[in-house]
Amino acid sequence: MAAAIADNDESTTFAEEDEELSEDDYKLKDNVYKLLDMLVDNVTLKKFGWPETKEEKVLCKVNKNCGHDLSKDPYNYQEWDYGTRICQVIVYRGYT
Prior knowledge:
By secondary structure, the protein is mainly alpha-helical. The protein has four helices and two strands. The protein has helices at residues 23-39, 42-47, 55-65, 82-90, and strands at residues 2-4, 13-16. It has a two-stranded antiparallel ribbon. A hairpin with an 8-residue loop joins strand 1 and strand 2. Helix 3 runs parallel beside helix 4. The protein starts with a strand and ends in a 6-residue tail after the last helix.
């Protein structure tokens, strides 16, 4: 089952929940956890379902909260690998 990203959990989908991650992907995932912890207050993180909700979904909700709705992007995120999706969400959406 695909993990939905937008608030309504249906408009944008990423990869399958059982996606295989490389060692580098796991390192990236760990760094995303740290980034979320540094940039977003605990109240907001909990509002977005953290830590039970996948980091990709939380990042997208943070983006949407800042005015960028990924469900309106022309990209098919589901076809991208984990690292590419995370870079798209973080790097190209203004976290850096």
